[in-house]
Amino acid sequence: MTAVSRLDAADVAACAEELADLLTDTVHGGASVGFLAPLDRAAALAWWKGRATEVSAGELAVWAARDGGRVVGTVSLAFPDKPNSRHRAELVKLMVHRSARGRGLGRTLLATAERAAEDSGVTLLHLDTETDSPAERLYLAAGWTRLGAIPDYAASPAGELRPTTIYYKRIGAPPHTR
Known about the structure:
It is built from five helices and seven strands, in the order βαααβββαβαββ. By secondary structure, it is of the alpha+beta class.
């Protein structure tokens, strides 16, 4: 049974090794999450350890999915620091280990982040993902709206420039009705 829980800064630091393994598996599997392959495990570990500071500052919320005690998935929400944008958050780093795919874990992680965002007063979520990636099917099925694509936005893990598609989703009560 897979359990999803929110991580505090100490949790992120404590399970950084497992999160680094998940990140390297995701990149080596071809998913575009901001890193090039081959991703050095030490670099993945350093990246995750750096997230603990953002979690502590309230700039980032991180959830981890565990199966048999091992981290097999994660999703995060990045919160803007500007006063005029406190109603929105960016969904980032939705990752599922290749060994755990095909069981609905991506949908579970996405729904968890959406519920938490709504509970915290966020009414608008946005994200970007590689155009024509498997992730696009997930977001469309979950009711996200495709805004458009930006050509040559980011390099794939293989280093090829690829387009990125921007999505958004309104959640909760619109700001003008609160």
